[in-house]
Fold each of these.
Amino acid sequence: MSKPAPYLRLHREHPELAEAYERFASAAHEAGPLSERERRLVKLALALAAGSEGATHSHTRQALEAGIGVEDVRHVAFLAATTLGFPAMMKGLSWIEDVTVEG
């Protein structure tokens, strides 16, 4: 998986910080009973709810790499409509399509 340039720079300039973050993220990922599929979809939903374009791109890529289908990933955005609102859903869907639609 290709990582964003700022993250790679952080890794080069402050490897101890990046490695500590990665250990923490791994521990959180494994801390409960959710399946890999469920965790990936929840992380994508959280990224959408936070309004984070970068995290949405990242979690969309990770979901696809975990074998989750494009239609499943898009469904996460559709579900956001009634909680976050239609404009937020469309924004999130466009970020998902940045990753899933070839330009």
Amino acid sequence: MNKKTFEELKSSIREAGAVRRGEKPPTRVWRLTKQPDGSVKRVQLDPLKYQSEKKAKWDAQTEIVAARSALSMSQSQFAGFLGISIRTLHHWEQGSRRPTGAARVLIQVAQKEPKAIKRVLATA
């Protein structure tokens, strides 16, 4: 791989990280809808509008406290459950940072299906 190609690849990876963290809107966003005949309809969305809607849909502070309450866990217990430091959980609950990736999904599941999480924890 030549130097120019390598630099383009590095730049693309950095850009993808910025999009993932919500620092930069994606260049293209598509909504896929399965049609009754089995085909898929693809509609392009406005990336800036998509990014602002995505941020507005999930209020980390409220969701984290709600998930922790649903599981009847203290902050230290919930941090241990997520595999994070209590300091990170404090940052999330205070709104200075936002969870991403698997932690965010697990928090959403814990809030919406606390009984399922409790069953898993009981068998672990």
Amino acid sequence: MKKEQLNRMATKKGFIAALDQSGGSTPKALLQYGVPQDSYTTEEEMFDAVHAMRSRIIMSPAFSEEYILGAILFEGTMDRTIEGVPTSEYLWKTKKIVPFLKVDKGLEDLDQGVQLMKAMPDLQLLLERAITQGIFGTKMRSVIKEANPKGIKKVVEQQFEIAKIILKAGLVPIIEPEVDIHSMDKQASEKILKAEIAKQLALLNSEDRVMLKISIPTQPNFYADLQKEEHMVRVVALSGGYPRNKANNLLSKNHGLIASFSRALSQDLHIDQSDDEFNEILGSSIKKIYEASIT
């Protein structure tokens, strides 16, 4: 199974759906979907509501292997079911979409122009649970807000330190050092970031395979050399807060770079839409992101 999934991620056309909003971003995602904050009172009810939204997306006929290679899940989504089947199993066995799991626990406060990942004391247990659920890979996010060489170096070193633990467990890590799209020196940050990533890739074992998730670069095709690097399965891009049309337009200028969009994927979906309307809007969104991902 893993060999088939690895081949799919490395060679097929399509993009990754990011369905991994966690505690901090979930209320905003639900509000966009038409579920106000006063409609749930506990965290469990909130996650039940967002799981219902994600299930509706995943079960839609528009959400198909023709356009979507993989989907990133939040831990609570992995632990829930769709039509009585564990979410990750449903994704692969029913849809042929490769399941990934978000493993980070959020961000530290801003220091040296960056936000490192918080400690993950239960990472090993989570990875073991992910393997039993048929998860293929993981994702973890840091944020870069300033072109601070020391801070960016720390971000990349931390990402690869955790990535090696994930690799040892038998999973494929998506390394995500996001450069804030509103940063005043975004392009300078990207130059430092790429150099630090190249250094860390050179230190991996020959058999190690990783993925990279980055902000759409200021200069088109800036990460083209990393896309061809021997350890790299795929380089994917987040929408970073851009509206879908702008994100698609910027992405389409980067040959071989594919989307891993969250808000840009679901921005026009609403709880009150009929299934036909929901599926039509989701299908249109998916096709547009797909077209931008195959340039």
Amino acid sequence: MTDDVLIELDHVSKSFNKPDGGQLLVFDDITLNIVAGKVVALLGRSGCGKSTLLRIIAGLIAPTTGKVLYRNTELVGANAGAAMVFQNFALMPWLTVQKNVELGLQAHRVAPAERRRRALEAIDLIGLDGFQSAYPKELSGGMRQRVGFARALVLEPDLLLMDEPFSALDVLTAENLRNELMTLWTTQDFPTKAICLVTHNIEEAVMLADRIVVLGSNPGRILADLPIELERPRDRRSPAFEALVDEFYELLTGTGPATTAVEFATATPTSHPLPHATVGGLAGLVEIVHGKGGRVDIPDIAADLGIDAKELLPLIDAAALLDFVRVSGGDLELTTIGKDFTTADIQRSKQIFAQQARTRAPLVRTICGALHDCPDGTLRADFFLDILQEGFGTQDAQRQFDIAIGWGRYAELFDYNSQTGQIAGGTGAETPVPVLTGGVR
């Protein structure tokens, strides 16, 4: 493979319209290129805009400013040199495996006989030979994702785009597919010249990529663009691998200035989305940090729990948002508020959580404020979902709403009746809680 440039992003920014007429800046001033012969990982937390960036590379979304070039020609529509593998498989349930794989070829008006030949070759390449007449409902999650790979590879694209393609799979299936993909990538007849992968899994990025681009949030900007020079196959237990993982953990968890009180006062539910964390999960993390003396290394917590450290990032984000912990490099430090929260009795703990959530979690604050302004103290959930969908899309809007409801119920700030679709103010909405300072213990 040669090092010719396939994709160039030149000062690309993307914003979406907000319900109030303003603009939500998703990412800003992204400049990078993707060359043949390389696997590039876009690494970042949820909400940093990496999936939107991937769709801009695919030509499915136009940038607000800047330009995208494919082989020195500016994109003005779908990128004919790219094919995408999605997180949720995106298969047509009424079509067989073979017909699903043929879809892209059919759109390119390839003759039926040629479509069949190329589809069967792709099915064989990806290890699904014998399943060409099966329907998606007959396949496991891993096999469905293989169909997604075959459907993309059959087009023989210059660039294979993958949007968290392993995140919907169980751990063992995901690991098997990663290894098989890398084995195929190193063969001479792999039908694509470069891969661009979106992930929030640090170990996955280090395992697969030749180059990792780290994106920050609010708005998304490039924090680092680093080559990975480990030979393949890569050993997760090697000191070099572990050192790179630690370096990227520090980049993802220890960069950027702390959000100030003024920023929290002006933050909106779309500019500062809630992390995907339950109250029990973030409370458990705070308890662990307290139990280890108030300061702990993030990878060490993951190792002690026997989990992938990526699973801790939303909990870390949530605990930091509520000022229960501070992130310093790759370490977590317990704050004064965090210690009070985790050592208090349950009622006092809930009061502290309520105070922090309604002042520092924008969506929770918005719901509390809207309920306070209503004469009967109730509102339909659809009101908030409609607002959230403008900034997040349907699925992520529902996820943000569910997180807020969980936090609000625990804090007794509000309750939600799923049968009637009504949100009502709770007994904790007006409970006075002294303002605490968040110094580190």
